[in-house]
Design goal:
- This protein is α/β, with parallel strands linked by helices.
- The chain has ten helices and ten strands.
- It has an eight-stranded parallel β-barrel, surrounded by five helices.
């Protein structure tokens, strides 16, 4: 049995499901996916984000890492939060997890069955619509997919639902008509929009947990500004830790995709930073400029 983990991301109860407040993202890792996912589990991450989209994710390798971590005593499946996504064919490559000629309901069910096989599990903690079919509004394809996801949630094979890469208008439309409201919204989070403030506010008003990705890479210019560097120096932390501490403090579930073992431990150490004061929070909220 391996030594206990030194860093564990705290859990919250969200609609009856234990959800880690910090997730490890597995996009864009290709042949390193298995090793890096295992490394994240070893560091203490209890939530893994993936997708059945071979173009950007290697979901089967995530499953191998999880099984190895369980076998090595690092964790148990019941203590992990596994989240995957259904991706429309327009965002896939030729390695499709479903029959592209099938109706959308069948595609969703085939994609989920493939995800369960990849991850070697009989349920998902969260199943995410990877993005609406069109740039604006929700179209019939979105509703066919969402209704199928709702049905799957009713069966228990999926515990929670979510949507990613979504606009304010699209989320508003989904909330108005969905039988099962999304439990999560996952967006690329830009400082220039005050960290997706408008959508985060809509999420908060509707009991949705906002998951932010690319917090560092999407904001590299803003995070090199003098006020941020001076703040990190004053607090004795890295800029990454500062951003993650800020995200956690505003109720966001951040994602990190770091491939560096020490950075993973450093990221989780953000929990141990003192609570940021109001002046520091305002500085961080406005670092991208006023909307």
């Amino acid at each position: 049995m391996s030594q206990p983990q030194l860093s564990i991301s705290p859990l919250i109860d969200h609609r009856g499901v234990s959800v880690p407040t910090f997730l490890y993202g597995t996009a864009w890792k290709e042949e390193r996916t298995e090793a890096l996912t295992y490394q994240a589990l070893k560091a203490g991450f209890l939530g893994i984000d993936t997708a059945n989209q071979r173009r950007h994710y290697y979901e089967a390798a995530v499953g191998k890492a999880v099984q190895q971590a369980v076998a090595d005593g690092l964790c148990q499946r019941s203590g992990l939060f596994l989240q995957s996504k259904f991706t429309f064919v327009s965002s896939q490559d030729h390695r499709l997890p479903y029959d592209p000629k099938a109706d959308y309901s069948t595609q969703v069910r085939q994609s989920l069955a493939s995800s369960l096989e990849h991850l070697q599990t009989d349920y998902l903690d969260a199943f995410i619509l990877h993005g609406p079919a069109a740039r604006q509004g929700l179209v019939d394809a979105d509703w066919q997919v969402w209704r199928t996801m709702e049905n799957l949630c009713h069966t228990g094979v999926v515990k929670l639902l979510g949507i990613s890469n979504v606009s304010f208008g699209q989320l508003h439309s989904l909330l108005a008509e969905a039988e099962i409201k999304p439990a999560f919204v996952q967006n690329r989070c830009y400082a220039r929009s005050q960290w997706d403030a408008e959508i985060r506010a809509l999420c908060e008003a509707n009991g949705i947990r906002y998951q932010g990705f690319s917090l560092l890479t999407a904001n590299s210019t803003e995070l090199q500004q003098a006020p941020i560097l001076k703040m990190a120096q004053r607090l004795g932390c890295t800029v990454a830790q500062l951003v993650f501490r800020f995200a956690l403090q505003i109720g966001m579930i951040p994602l990190t995709g770091s491939s560096n073992a020490q950075h993973l431990h450093d990221d989780l150490a953000s929990y141990r930073l003192p609570e940021l004061g109001s002046a520091d929070m305002i500085t961080l909220e406005q670092i991208g400029g006023q909307p």
